[in-house]
Structures
1.
Amino acid sequence: MTIHSNEAKEYYLAPNGDFVITNYQQKKTFASFLPGIAGLHGIPLWVFYVNRGQGVASFGVADKDHAIMEFEPANKSYQRVPTQGFRTWIRTGTAQQPSVHEPFRRLRPGTTSRMVISLATLTLEEEAADLGLKTRVQYFILPEENFGALVRKVTITNQKKTPQTVEVLDGMPVIIPYGLSNQALKDMAYTSAAWARAYGVEDKTAFYRTYAGTADEAVVEKVEAGNFFIALTPEAQGIRLLKPLVDPELIFAEDNSLDQPLGFLRRNLAAFDGEQITENRLPCAMAAVQRELGPGEELVLYSAFGFLPKYDHLAAVREKFLKEGYFEEKQKRVEQIHRYYTDYALTVCKDQRFSFYTRQTFLDNFLRGGFPLNLGAPGEEKPYYVFSRKHGDLERDYNQFYLSPTYYSHGNGNFRDVLQNRRSDNFFNSKLKAANIKTFASLFQPDGYNPLVIEGSKYYLSAQSAKEQVLGGLSPEDRAKLETVLSEPFTPGAVATFIMEQKIQLPTALPEYLGLLMTVADSWTEAKFGEGYWVDHWTYLLDLIETYLALYPEERSQLLFADHSYTFYDSYVKVQPRSKKYVLTAAGPRQTGARIVDPEKKKLIDSRKVFPYAVRTQNGHGEIYRNNLFVILFTLVLNKLSSLDPYGIGVEMEAGKPGWDDAMNGLPGLFGSSTPETMELLRLVRFLHETLAQQPQEDAGVKVPTEVFAFYQGLDSLLAAEAPARDGKGPADALKSWAAATSLREEYREKVFPGFAGSEETISFGDLQAFFRKAIAKLENAVAQARNPETGLFNTYYSHEPVDYRPTGEASPDGLRYIEVKAFAQHALPPFLEGQVRAMKVLTTQEEKRALHQKVSRSGLYDEVLGMYRLNADLSGESFTIGRARAFSPGWLENGSIWLHMEYKYLLELLRAGLYEEFYTAAQTALIPYLNPEVYGRSILENSSFLLSSLNPDRQNHGRGYIARLSGASAEFLSIWSLLAFGPRPFRLQGSELVYAPEPALRGDFFTEEAQEVEVQFCPTQSRVVSIPANAFAYRFLGSTLVVYHNPERRDTFGPDRVHIHGFRLQSAEGKTIELEGSVVSSPLAAQIRDGVFPRIDVFFGKTK
C-alpha cells in the first residue's frame, strides 16, 4: 500500500482500513499475529509479530513444537526480535568508504519508520533521508498451495538523484531445523544443535531438519520432513535464485551475540561461493545480492520460509517460485481471500472506524469459533467449520494452540470459547439452521457437565451403500487409494489434502464431493475432557437458541421436540460425591479431589470405533441413547437446580473449577458458589416454561430416561416441600434442602455414569409446567437474596466456611481426612461486573435495569478515569485463597482491570434492555474503535483481552490494551452489531404469519453524509461495486443480502423522536424489483428474504409511522 507521508499523526487509520503506526519501535510494545489463513486449499502457518525490529517474532506450522522461528513469550520477543528476528543490512558507498545500514534496528536521526497493519499482511517502511534509501518489508502467508510458507518481500529504493550501488544481506539469523521441539529449544538448545542439518545449498535452496529423532529411545527413526528457505530476486533477464547462506559464522564471525554481521562487514557475500558448515550448529537462512540502482530504482528480494513433508518436494516448489509474477499474484490472492470472508460482515456507515472495526472483529471472531462453509450440492449443503484455533499467542504463552496443516484447516478450541464465538453465525449464514445447537447440546453429559476441548467433526462411512456413493465414478486406481483413507474415521480436510496430493480425479468439484461425503457419512464432534468441569459452560447454549429463533420464530416447538437424534456426551471423568471431596487440611476444611478418572470407563470408550463419546443404553454396552433438545435442557435444569449452595443462592463450584472468571480458581476449594449461573438457570427455566405454554396439547408429554425421571420426581417433591417457606407460611431450612438435593444428584450420577439403563418414563406437559413454576419461584427468591441491600448490586461469588463438621473415619489417597459438614457460614465477595450482567438478563422491567445501571456507574465497578467498566471492585480485603485474581496487582489481568469480554457483555445488556441513550453514552469511551490509540497502545481495530485500569499504580499505562485479539469480546460485539443493525428479532410472528421486521437501533449520525461506491466481494474470486447513497446505512445480512437503510433526515431509529420504516424495495437476482409499503414484509416474501432470494433490500425510513 502507499503510505500517506503527509500524515502527521503517530497512529492513524488509512482510508482503506489499514492501521498505521509511525516510528513504531518507539511506541508502547504490543504483540499481534497474521490470521493464519491460507485459503481452503492451502496450508496455514502461525505467525506472530511485535512492534520491534522487523516485526515477525516467531512462526511455524501446526504448533509450538514445529517452529521455524522459535516461539518466545511476548516479553522475550520484544527483547530478542531485533537480533534474532528478520534482519537486513545494506552496504552503500565505495570500497574505500563503505557504509552499512541496518533498517528498522535503530532509528537514526532524520529517519522515519512505519508499521502498516492490514487484514492479511504486515508492512514495515523506513526512510533514511541521509542515505537516500527507502526500505519496505511485507509479510504474508502463502495461499492455496500444498505446502505452508511465510513470504517476505523486501524492496530497497534509491531515493538519491544519483545512482548508487547497494549490497543487501537479508534473512533469518537463526532458523529452527524441523525435528526440534519447543522444550528442546528451551532446555537444551546447545545439545540439540548436534542433530541439525542443512541440505540442498548447492541447488540454491535450503532444507533444514534434524538427521534423526532426538528422543532417547531404542528405536531411532530418520526425519524426512523439513523447513525450507528459498530467496530470489527479479532482474531484467528474469527471476534469479540467490544462494542460501546457512552458516551463521559466515555472517557474524565471532560475534555470537548476533549483534553485528562481522563477516559481512569484512567481505562481499553477494558473490560468495565458498564452503559452508551445514551441520552441528543451529543454521541461519540468509541471502545476499548486489545491484546498482539508478535514481528511483528498486531492488526487490523475495524469500519464502516454510515446511515440506519431504526434501524431494523442494525442487517443485522452487520451480513454482521462478514463474514470473508468482509472488505478486499470491499476495493479491491472499488479500482477496481475507476480503471475501470479512465482507460477510460488510458495514457501510459514516463512521469508518466502526465499519473497519466490525470487519476486523468478524475476522477475529471466526478465528476462535471457525468460519462455517456450506459444502455439497445446492439444497443439500452441510456446514463445516474452518480456520478456528485455540487462542494462543505471544501474550497467551501458556496455551497450546494448534492449526492443522491440511486443506480446510481448523484447530482445537475450548468449549466455552467456541460456543460463544458461534453465537451470531446464523446471521451470516442462513443455511446453518440448528447445526450448532445440536453440536453443543449433544456435548452435555447426563451429569450436566461437558468436555473442555473441541477438536472438530469426525466422519465415518458405516454403510456399504454410502461407500459406493462416494467411490463410484472413480478409476480403479483412485478408488483403491481413497478407500484406504475412508475405511477409518476421517476429517474432510484430511481427505481433501489426500485427494490433492494423490491427484485423484473426482467426478465432481472438490467442495461438492466433500459435501457428498458429509451427507452420507455418520459424524460426531471429537471432544476431550481437557482440564476440568466449569460451572458456566452450559449457560451459553440458550444464546445460540435465541439467535436461531430470531430467524425461525415459527420453529420453536419443532426445534425442541421434533428432532430425536440428540445424544449425551459420555465421559470417563466422574464428579465425586461430598464424602470423597470434603477434606480436612492443615488450613482447615476444603473441597479437593472433586474429579477422578475411571480407568474401566475410559477403556470402554476407547474401544468404540464410531461415536465413541455417545452415551449408550444397557449401562454403556447397548445402543446409543437418543432424544430431543428439550430432554437435554431438562436434564441440565435438574442438575443445576440441585446444585444450589447451602443457602440456596449460587450454583456450587462442586467439580473443582469456577465459572467464567477462571482466576477465581481458589473458590471451588472454599466451597464456593456463583450467582451468574443461578440467573442463567432462571432464564432457561422461564424459556422452557414459556415453550410448554405454547404447546397445544396439555396432556402431551416427554419421554425421559428412567433415571432422569426418578431425579425429577425427587426434586419436584423437594420443591413442593420448600414452597411454604418461600411463601412465608413455614420455617426455612436451606441446609436441609441443600443436603437432600445434593443426595438426589449424587444418587442419580452414580446410576448414570456407566450409561442409561434404556427404559423411559413419560412426564406430561402439565406436570412439567407445574415443576417449572416451582423452580422459577425458588430461583427468583435466590436472585433476590443475591442483591446486596446496601449497594443495590448483585453478589457474584460466595465462599462457604464449614463451621460444624466431623471426620467420617475415612481418608483421601493423599492422607487427608474426609469430613461430613453439618453447617456453613456464607461470605459474599466484593462486587463483580458479571453478576450485574447476568442480572440484567432476568430483571423483568426496563426501570429495574436502568436503576441497576445507575448503581453500577456509581460503584467501584466503574472506572471514572477511563469511562469504562472494571471486572471487579477492590479485592484487597479478601484472602489470597480465593484464587490468582487476588495475587495480581489491582487493575492487571483479572483483578479490577477492564476485561473487555465482560465489559462488552455489559454494553450488550444495555442494548438488550432498550437503554439506547445509556449504551451510546457508554460506547463513546468503552468501545475500542473510539479509544485514543496513543493511550490504547495498539490498533484501535483490534480488541485486547484487558486494558489496565486506573486501580493500577502504573499511571502512564492506564487504558493500555494487553493480550491481542482472540477475545470473547468479538462475540459480544457481533451481538451488539446485530442489535444496532436489525434488532433482536428481524423475523417474527404476527399471529401465525411470518414477517420480516427489522428494528435497528442506529443513531442518526451513523448514516452516511455522501454517496459512496463500495467494492464488495460476494464470491471467492470476484468483487463488484455497489452504490450506497447519502443518508444511508448498509450491511450484509444472512451472508447473501445487501440491506440498505435510507434515512433522509438522518435521525435516530430509536427513542420518542425516532424515524419509522414506511417502505421496502426488494431486488431479485434478475434485477426485478418489488415495492412495498408498511413497516413489515409479510409472507411469503418474508420467508424468501430469509432464504436469500433477494440480493438487495432497500428499507425506507421517515418521521411519520
Note: Residues 982-1102 form one domain.
2.
Amino acid sequence: MEWVWPFTREPSLVLPSQWMGWLGWGLLWVIWGWGLRQVASGALQVARQRWYLLLGLALLAPLTTLLIGIQIGGEELLPLPYLPGESPLPLLLPLAAIPWVLASGWLGPFWAAWIALESGLLVGIWITHDVFTPLLISGLGLLYGFAVTQAYQGRFWAWLRFPLVAGLVVGVVYTPILILGAFFAAPGGLATRLDFAFSQSWLISLVRYGELVLAGGMATILAVVPGTGWRRPSILMPAPWETSLANRLLFVTLPLVVLLFLVMTVSHWMVAGNAAREMLQERLSGAAQVAAEGLPYFLESGQSLVTRLADPALLEQPPETIRERLAQQLRAVPYFHQLMLFDTAGRLVAAHPDLDLSISPLSAQETQGISLALKGVPIQVYTILPAGEKRSMQVSFLAGVRDAGGVKGVLVGRTDFDTNPFTQPALAALHSIVSEGGDGFILDENGVVLYQANPTTGALLGESFGSVILGGEPRFYEGLSPLGTRQFMYYQPVVGKPWSVVLVMPAQRAQDMALQIAAPTLISLVLFAGLLIILSRVGSRTLVTSLSLLASQAARIAHGQLDTPVQVEGVDEVGRLGRAFEQMRLSLKARLEELNKLLRVSQAVAANLDVEAAIAPALEVTLGEHVVAARVALIPEVKLDFTSGQGVALGQGSLAEPFAYLDEVLFEGVRQQNLLTIANVGRARRLQEVIQGRPYPSALVALPLRYENTYYGVFWVGYDQPRVFADEELRFLETLAGNIAMAAANARLYATAEVGRKRLEAVLASVPDPVLVFDNQNALLLLNPAALQVRGLFGQVTPGSALEEVITAPGLLELLSLPPGTRFQSREIALAEGRIYHASVATVWGEEYPIGKVCVLQDITHYKQLDALKSEFVATVSHDLRSPLTLIRGYATMLQMIGDLNEQQQGYLQKMVSGIENMTRLVNNLLDLGRIEAGIELKLENLDPAEVVSQVIAQLQPQAAQKSIEIQSEFHLPEGLVLRADPDLLKQALLNLVDNAIKYTRLHGGVWVSATCENERVVFAVRDNGIGIAPLDLPRLFEKFYRSGRREAHEQRGTGLGLAIVKSIVERHHGRVWVESQLGKGSVFYIELPLDPEKAESLV
C-alpha cells in the first residue's frame, strides 16, 4: 500500500475503437438520461434554495478526486486489450465519493449524479483513461442518491436511507453494471470482452465499493445529527412493487434470477477458463518438450561433423582443390550450407559457396572464434545474424585443423534452423503452435532470439526476448504482448545446452476455447433465465388475473353489488378462495336483504308515532316463503284513547284474520318467557283445546315485546307447514320484535307526552301572567294567551320563530339572550303605556345539558306606583324629622353645659344621643335613597376603577384595623381603562359593601376587593370570609329595611337601607348588583357597571 498523488499522472482519455464499444457507450447514456429524468422533479427548486451547497460541492469534487490516492498492492490491473500500456496497480481514492455522497443527502439524486459525473470525468482522464468511467461513476451516484432519499415504507427502506447502509447495498447492486461497462469498454471479440469484464471488474468494483463505504460512513454522522440539512422524507409511500402482486413477484424473482445467472455465468466461465488454460498448458508443454529435445542432437551433430571435416590434408592442396573438396562434403552431408577454411594467419583459403569477405565479412564472434581455435580451442559454436531476411539466426561451428605439429588452420561451418535437417522436428513443433495463433522462439543463453516461428507477430530475431526469466525448471506463466493483450507463455530449457524454447499463445485462444466450452451452458443459462422470468410472469399473471377478479368482486361486494356471482374455477387455493368469496357474497346478500328489511322497519318506527303505521312494515317484511300470518297484539296504553281498555291487534298475511283468535293465548303465553317455538302446532298439547275445531298454522314462533323491562305484547308468525327454525331466522325475528317493541314504546311515550302537553296547555291558558317557552336554540315553542295581550312586547309570535324575531323589548331580549346558568335570571322590564313587568327566566335542564328556558312576566306596575308613593311619604316624613332631631341633639349636647351630671344621668344622655344619631342616620339614608330613586342627575366623570377602590379601602382601613382584618385589593384591568360614573355615588356604594364586609367578618378575618373588565363592563367584587348569608335571605337581601332573622346579623346595628342604596346607585348607572354566599364561609358582592352609562341608557 502506497500513498500517491493522482494529479501528477499523465491525463488521457481513450475512446471506443469498435462499433460495439460505441453502442454500449450510447446505451449507458440512454440509461443514465432515463434515470436522471426520473429524479428531476424539484431539482431546479432545490438548486435555487441551496445554490451555495451545489457550488461548493462542485468546486470540492476536483480536490477530493485528484488530491490523494492509495496504491493497493497485489494483483495488477490489465490495460485495455490492443492498447499498449503498463499494468497499473489498483488505486483507491478515499475522498473521491464524498462530494456526490453529500450531494445525495443535501441536494437529491439529480445533482448527486451531476457531481458524480464531474468526479468520474476526472477519474477517467487521470486514473483509468476510460471513457466509460464518468458514466459508471455518475450512475453509481444516481443510484446512491435515490437510495438515501427514497420515501418507501418498510424497515428495509428505512435502513437504506442511512448513508452507510446505502453504500453497502448500492455497492453490491451496482457490480453487474460495472461488469457490463467493462464488457463494452474492452476492444476485441466476444471472448476477449468477456474475459476482460470477468477478470478485471472485481478489482474496480472493490475500489469503488471502498470509496462509497468510506464516504457513506462520514455522511452517516451528518444524517443522524439534527439541523445539518440532510433531507428526510416527511411522507412515506408504498414501493411500486408493493401495489401489485405481479410486480412483487417480479421484484423477488428478477434479482434472484439475475444473481443466479451472474453467479452461474461467472463460475462457469471461470471453470471453462481454467479448463482451457490447462488444455493450453498441456499443448504448449508438449510442443516445447519436442522442440527442446531436438536441439541437443542438432548441436552435437554439427560439432561432430565439423570436427570430422577439419582434415589437415586440405591445407596441403591448392585452393581450387580445397574448394572442390568442400563442395563434395556439402553435397554428401547437407548439414551446413557454407564451409570456410582459414590458415594460421586467419586468412580465408577457400570457401564453398564462394565468399567475398570484403562484401560479407565475418561476424565478430566468428573472428574471435578463429583466434581462439588457432590458440588450441578444439570446437566452438556461435550464433550470428542471417544474411538477408530470414526468420532464423545462423549457427556457426568452428573447429581447428590439426596435425602432429599443431593447429594448421580453422574450418568454419555455417547452418540455420530453417535448412538444417536435424532441426525440422523441433521447428515442426514450433510451427504447430503458430498454426493455432501462437508463436515459438528458440533462445540462447543470453535470451537472444535465435529462431521465431511466426515473424509476423514482430521482428525479434537477434534481439533479447525480455519478458522471460532464463534458467530453472520448465514453467507456465502469463504476460502481456506488445499490443497490450494477455498471452500465455511456456518456458522449456534445452538439456545439455544453455538454450531454451519459449512458446507463446495469446490469451484469446484460451478465451475462445473457454467460450466454446461455456457457450452451450451460457446459452442455456440465458434461455433458462429468460424462460424463468417469462414463466414467472405468465404464472403470476394467471394468479394475478384470478386475484384481480376476486379483488374486483370484493370491491363490488364492498359497494353493495351482490348480484354478480364469483366465477373462479379450480381446486387450488385460488379456487377455494373464490368459492369462499361466493359463499360470502351469498351470505352478505342475504344479510343485506335482511338489513334492508330492518332498515325499512327502523325508518318506519322512527318516522311514525302512530303504532299501526310504525308496525305495518315489520309485518310486511316478515311475510315470505311458507309464512301465512304475521300478527302483533299490544297493550292498550300504546294509543291515545286507552280508556276503553282494549289492546291493539294487527296482522298481515293470507290467514292473518282466521288465526287472530291465537293473539290472546300467545299474549299471555310469552309474558314470562323470551321465545316460544312450536315446530308442529298439531302436536302441541298446550294448544289442543284452543285450536279444536278452528284453523291453525302448522308451525309458529312467538316473541315477547319488551322494552326497558316493560311488557308491551306479543309478535308471532305462523307457517303453512311444520319446520325447524334456524338460528339466523330466529335472530332476524328477534330483531324485528325489538323494533316493534321500540315502536310500541314510542307510541306509548307519545300518547303520554301528548296528554301531558294538552294538560300543560290548559294550565298555561289559565295562568294570568304571560308565559313564554323557548328551546335551547332560542326558538319560540309556545306562549299562553295572556302573553298575547301585552302591548309592545312581541313582533312575530309564530312558533319556531327566532328569539330576535319574537321579542321587541330590548331589556327582555337581553335577559333571554343570556347563556344558561347566568347569575341574573330576573329583571324589571318597562313596556309601552308605562307598564312595568318583573321578568324571570328559568332554564330547563335535561340530564346534563339545558334543553330550553321558560320566561314568566309579572305585572308590577301597581306595586311600583305604591312603592313610589311610599318613597315619597318616607322622604317627606324624613325631611320633616330632620329639624326636630337636630334640635333634640343640640339640646341634649347642651345639658352638660348647664351643670355636672351624675353617672346615671350621663348614661341616659349618651343613650339619647346614640338614639338620635341612629335616627339621623336613618333619615339621611332615607333622603339619599329618595333622591336616587327620584332620578337625580348623575355627575359623570372619567374615573380610574383601581383608584376608586384604593380610596375606599384607605377610608375604611382604621375600622378594619380595630378588628385585625386585612383588606387586600386585586385588579385585572387594561392599561388606560376609563370608567364614566358619579364618583360620590360609586364610592358610597363601595363603602356600603366594604363596611358590611368588615362588620360581618370575625376578628382576624380578611376582605378582598377586586376590579376586572369583561365585555365593556367593569365588575367590582367585595369578598369576605365572614358569617355568610342564608339561602332564604338571598332573594330579599336588597329590599328596603330587610334584615336577616339570624342572631349573628342582629348583633350588628343597621337600618336595612345600605344594600337598597347600593342597588339604587348601581341601577341608576344601568348596572347590576348580585351576591353569592355560603353560610359560614363568607359572601361575595358584585357590582357590574357599563364603561359608559350614557351609551348603555341609549341602548335601553
Note: Residues 82-87 have pLDDT under 50 and may be disordered.
